[in-house]
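Why predict the complex rather than its parts? Because the way molecules touch one another can change local conformation, and only a joint prediction can capture that. The input here totals 652 residues.
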Amino acid sequence: MLKLALLSIWNRRGTIFLTLLTLSISVTLLMGVEKLRHDTKQSFFNTVSGTDLIVGARSGSLPLLLYSVFGIGQPTNNIRWSSYQQIASQEAVAWTIPITLGDSHQGFKVIGTENSFYEHFKFGRQQSLSMAEGHFFDDLFDVVLGAEVARALGYQLDDAVVIAHGLGRGSFAQHQDKPFKVSGILNATGTPIDRNLFISLAAWEAIHIDWRAGTRIPGMNLDADAVKARDLTPKELTAFMVGLQSPMATFHMQRAINTYRTEPLQAILPGVALQELWQVLSIAEKSLLIVSACVIFASLTGMLGILLTSLNERRRELAILRAVGAGPLRIMVLLLSESVFLTLLASALGVGMMYLLVFSFQDWIALEYGVFLTLNGLTPEQVRLLLWIQLAGLITGLIPAIKAYYYTLIDGLTPKI
Amino acid sequence: MTQTCSVSLNQLVFSWKKTNTLLNIDSLTLHKGEQVFVQGPSGSGKSTLLNLLGGVVLPHSGEVSLLGTPLSTLSQRKRDRFRADHIGVLFQQFNLLPYLSVCDNLLLPCQFSKLRRARTLEEYGSLNAGAHALLEALDLAEYIHHPRPVSQLSIGQQQRVAAARALIGAPEILLADEPTSALDADTRHRFMSLLLEQSRQHNTTLIFVSHDLELRHPFDRVIDLKTLNPAYRVN
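Output of the joint prediction:
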């Protein structure tokens, strides 16, 4: 019986192949979208962990999260160094990571920070940063590269790096009088950190010492050695991350910062803010999923069309089977098994194709979009989607199967065609 | 009686709608091994009679008994099994599944009926030997070792393969629905003599429906549906 079904399919391989192709492409699409959604979400929530509060100038929690963690958008205002010092010296505070933003290199953002960044920053499941090569900065003009920066620009240890003033690839103002030297390259983390360069706050101050309001002060030109003699204590910073002695103090600390008298500050809980941001993004994610579900629906409809058309041509075939003793129920099962077989095969092909695509474009997607796709097994959501597809295929197959059932009853041994 | 009686119809009435009786046969008995020619113009209830004899439909009243078994006592599934076991069917044309070889087409009934499979094995030792014997008997020996796609056969050859299929596993009854209508005069006579000879050899009750009266001569009995079925005259 199974052999009959397979031979019958093989006999109609031309049209069946097209059905299989469209169906497996749509399965690939659905699986791919789900994979993208899952892995994006994963790397999204993995960007920062172990940080209790992020503090910046008062704006909104989303902008603060976006510019401090994701490097998207512009900070509205800076924080005074004195405010930072005062909060950092609180008893409840275990560590702080200062962050200064605003400069870039070849389109990658430069972060001014301190060694506490390397020590305390955690991502994913409480993972710490680690060096692939070299060490975190200790000389004034040392720069540390994120994994992707090093790979994309082909930089190695001790290479010279000139930082551009401001953001954007085409920035004209370069700090070429004070070149940096690559002192270390970080291991890949799958977070925006891979796309950043790191210099010390003192270095940040040094390259901006002869600048005011985005341009060089005319006549004032300190060279790299002369600047080392100056006081390089920063006057401002963009934001800072706070680790507390005990998470119990989080809300108390947040309130204290939000009501800070000297200047308007804001403290956010990264987990809560990430969740809020994801809520915004999930609308896009859901509509993408709906679109691919529609594609599945369309190709199942296509399969239905082809099965129904072929059913008319197969009326004779069904009558022959009936004549040699196949009952209507058996003929129904024969037709149903065909669509179930097609759906299964298309699903297997689709999943295979999805993995092939992930395997081939993994690196490119990571480099271009910062989304790290993993070659893991199917997620529970993907398995659930696959089961839904099987069910939809079964239901689709029921229609021609029921029709064949009635054909065999009506035609009996004297087919009309 | 049941030993020799192959088909018996009794007080048979069949209609599509309550008012429109298609078939009304008072009594008809066919003996085992009897070769019967059923003639009748279209609309005289030939297809209905075939469907009733094949157990595909049930009469509204009266009884169809095959080999002593009243079909109305069987469920549809059992009737399907009964047909697979005891009845060979031969259509006008397009009897074969294009995607199966000659031998696979021929052996199709053995897939659906354990009885016919067992009988073939008993008689010939293996299914292939059975298929070969029948192909030889029907002048198709050249296709035994040359399994060409059936679509490459001529219509006459296809009908002979179909006849071999209807005969394999020695079913007691063979229903033939104008199997010669697509054949030319030469092949028709060859086909008829082979069919009659083979069904005689297997002691099969042959019910041969046709409107080609020239073919009726070698048959044991000729039944005219026009006279047998009063419902036709009424309509």
